Structure to design on (473 residues):
């Protein structure tokens, strides 16, 4: 301890103010008289001191710090703590862990060498598969391995989908067909059915689709006929379709309980399948002379009649009348005009409502209102005027035609009245009367009535006009 303190004092000269806090050498002690208080112990560890107890404590701390510096510098190659010129403790950029716990969790080298990187470049450690980006070569099979099996060396593993049984078939295929009735995407249904392992239930797909279509709309029956034509080949065989229709013909007595017109509809499905060439032409002839059920006989007779009509020029592929959203606008307008003409001749508003509902175009009912009003403007009698008012009133009360569609139909007539007036000179006058009657019957509101255009009147200049005509206001 004394030797360390002396060495430190030699390296750091003491100023005049701090002479009392320094140590004395042996030569100086012989030539000077020591003034010592008897109550102070002047000898510590064999060294004579002239300083107070505080300077001794400070010397001990500095010596301890110097030993710690020497120890850390040997371990971390000079990266630890150091002493400044004033003897103060200066910390380095990285402090080595001193507690046993931190040393235990430290993954750096314990030998005081290296750059402080993780072991094995990050490839070692628990749960590590190797360095990032490392590619493994195919593992060579060791034939001397006791678990080696020669039969498994050339195995090919594939995903196997178990075949559907009867219960799973209905739960899986029924939602697919019902969703198809909504979106009408045949390719999606073909892909979904191709991914399933139908197995022996493959022939049940057409029978399930047709049985669901019997209780649906005409447009959905048309979608079903198209779906059967697209499924034949990628998913189904012609023999599967024949088995399905055989099963449907046997089940007709049960289907009639839910759908009274099932025999006629089944005959239309068979005729359409023969025209689409997914059923053979000899399919109907194969039942001749061996049919005992009256419903089956009615279905086959209906199919035979439709096929004979197709030879005369009648198109069987249009028997279901495609849904409104899939038909061209010109065809819809033609059917609405025919509907109005039939209503004027028969006067049956219920039948007109049913026909308009079967068109399945609620977004296009404004065209029906437009054509009805134009028919009134072009007519020459009071009969058409009154009948059209009664029809629009019944359609408005039953909500078959909504308020929005009714308003759009009237507004379209308001916009085209100038062109209509070219062919019908009294169009403005008839339209004003029709709009007023419609308002009185509650078909339209007061705002729509006030929007009705009126024809501007022409009058001559009163004084000195010379036959001039005032412009229309």
């Amino acid at each position: 301890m004394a030797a360390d303190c002396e060495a430190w004092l030699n390296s750091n000269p003491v100023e005049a103010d701090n002479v009392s806090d320094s140590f004395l050498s042996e030569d100086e002690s012989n030539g000077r008289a020591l003034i010592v208080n008897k109550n102070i112990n002047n000898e510590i560890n064999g060294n004579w001191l002239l300083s107070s107890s505080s300077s001794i404590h400070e010397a001990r701390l500095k010596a301890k710090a110097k030993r710690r510096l020497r120890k850390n510098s040997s371990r971390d190659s000079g990266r630890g703590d150091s002493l400044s010129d004033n003897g103060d403790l200066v910390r380095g950029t990285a402090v080595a862990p001193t507690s046993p716990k931190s040393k235990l969790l430290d993954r750096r080298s314990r030998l005081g060498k290296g750059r402080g990187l993780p072991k094995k470049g990050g490839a070692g450690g628990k749960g590590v598969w190797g360095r990032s980006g490392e590619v493994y070569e195919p593992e060579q099979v060791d034939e001397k391995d006791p678990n080696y099996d020669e039969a498994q060396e050339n195995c090919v593993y594939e995903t196997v989908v178990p075949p559907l049984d009867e219960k799973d078939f209905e739960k899986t295929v029924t939602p697919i067909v019902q969703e198809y009735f909504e979106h009408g995407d045949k390719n999606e249904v073909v892909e979904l059915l191709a991914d399933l392992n139908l197995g022996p239930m493959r022939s049940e797909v057409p029978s399930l689709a047709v049985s669901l279509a019997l209780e649906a709309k005409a447009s959905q029956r048309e979608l079903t006929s198209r779906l059967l034509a697209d499924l034949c080949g990628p998913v189904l065989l012609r023999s599967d379709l024949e088995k399905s229709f055989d099963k449907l013909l046997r089940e007709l007595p049960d289907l009639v309980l839910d759908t009274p017109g099932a025999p006629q509809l089944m005959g239309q499905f068979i005729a359409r399948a023969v025209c689409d060439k997914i059923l053979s032409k000899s399919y109907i002839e194969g039942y001749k002379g061996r049919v005992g059920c009256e419903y089956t006989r009615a279905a086959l007779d209906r199919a035979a009649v439709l096929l004979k009509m197709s030879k005369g020029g009648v198109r069987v592929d249009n028997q279901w009348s495609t849904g409104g959203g899939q038909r061209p606008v010109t065809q819809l307008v033609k059917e609405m005009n025919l509907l109005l003409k039939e209503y004027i001749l028969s006067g049956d508003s219920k039948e007109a409502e049913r026909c308009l509902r079967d068109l399945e175009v609620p977004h296009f009912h404004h065209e029906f209102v437009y054509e009805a009003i134009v028919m009134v403007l072009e007519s020459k009698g009071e009969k058409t005027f009154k009948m059209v008012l009664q029809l629009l009133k019944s359609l408005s009360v039953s909500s078959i035609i909504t308020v929005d569609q009714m308003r759009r139909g009237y507004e379209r007539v308001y916009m085209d009245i100038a062109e209509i007036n070219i062919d019908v000179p009294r169009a403005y006058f008839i339209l004003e009367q029709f709009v007023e009657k419609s308002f009185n019957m509650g078909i339209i509101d007061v705002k729509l009535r006030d929007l009705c255009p009126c024809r501007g009147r022409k009058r001559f200049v009163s004084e000195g006009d010379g036959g001039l005509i005032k412009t229309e206001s």
